[in-house]
Amino acid sequence: LMMRWNTLDPNHIILAADQMNLCKDELELSSEERVSIAGLQLLAGKHSMKSSCFESARSYIESGVSLLQENHWESNYSLSLELYEMSALVSFIDGNGNADATMKRLQSILQHAKTFEDTLNASVLLSKFMGSRGNYAEAINNCLGILSNLGETFPN
Q1: Which of 69, 6, 58 shows the shortest CA–CA distance to 34?
Q2: pLDDT at 134
Q3: With helix as H, strand as E and coil as C, how does the chain read?
Q4: Could you give the angle at the alpha carbon of 26 between the alpha carbons of 63 and 90, nearest 5°?
Q5: With contact defined as beta carbons under 8 Å apart, do 17 and 60 qualify?
Q6: CB distance 40 to 13 below 8 Å
Q7: The dihedral of CA 62, 66, 70, 72: what is its sign?
Q8: Phi, psi values for residue 126, rounded to 5°
Q9: How far apart are CA 118 and CA 17, in angstroms?
Q10: What is the C-alpha separation between 72 and 98, in angstroms, rounded?
Q11: Cα(105)–Cα(5) distance, rounded to whole angstroms?
Q12: Distance, CA of 99 to CA of 128 (rounded, Å)
C-alpha cells in the first residue's frame, strides 16, 4: 500500500491523511491498518516538509508515531526509524517543538538503531541540536565520534 501511495499526487495523500486523522481514534484498527495509516501519515508529513509547512508536517508525523504498536522497533523497524527521524527533524526545524520531545526521539533512535548507518541522521541532528542549545563542546565531541566511526582521526 505504501508503494501505491508513493505514486499518488501529494494533494491526494494529504487529503487521505486528513480524513484518516478525523476518524482514526474512533475506529478499531488492526495492526496492519495501523501500520498502513502510519505510513500514510509519514508520506503526508514528508510532503508538508517539502512545502515548508512544518506545523502540518509535525501533526502528520506525530499522528503516525501515535499509531505505532508498543513493539514497533521490532515489528516495524524501518517505519519507526523514519517516523522518529522526521519527528525529531520537524521539531528542530520548526523551533516551536518541545526540546525534551526532540531529545527523547533522538535518544530512542540511537538506542534502537540496528546499524551505525541507521544512527547517522539522528547523530548529526543531535550535534546540531546540542549546538543550537549552546552545548558546543558536546556537539563537537559528538561530531568527532561520528567521524571516528567513519574511520577519520583527529589529534586531541
Answers
A1: 69
A2: 93
A3: CHHHHHCCCHHHHHHHHHHHHHHCCCCCCCHHHHHHHHHHHHHHHHHHHHCCCHHHHHHHHHHHHHCCCCCHHHHCHHHHHHHHHHHHHHHHHHCCCCHHHHHHHHHHHHHHCCCHHHHHHHHHHHHHHHHHCCCHHHHHHHHHHHHHHCCCCCCC
A4: 5
A5: yes
A6: yes
A7: negative
A8: -60, -40
A9: 27
A10: 23
A11: 26
A12: 12
State the cell numbers at 105: 526521539
Amino acid at 127: S
Q: Can you tell me the distance from the alpha carbon of 131 to that of 140, in angstroms, rounded to the nearest whole number?
A: 8
**Tens-binned pLDDT, residue by residue, of the chain (156 aa):** 455 656 678 888 999 999 999 988 888 999 999 999 999 999 999 999 999 999 999 999 999 999 999 999 999 999 999 999 999 999 888 766 578 888 999 999 999 999 999 999 999 999 999 999 999 999 999 999 999 999 998 877
Do residues 90 and 123 touch, judged by C-beta distance below 8 A?
no
- The alpha carbon of residue 57 and the mean position of all alpha carbons in its chain are separated, in whole angstroms, by 10
Report the phi/psi class of residue 97: left, alpha or beta, with left for phi > 0 and alpha for psi in -120 to 50. beta
Query: If you count them, how many residues does the chain have?
Result: 156
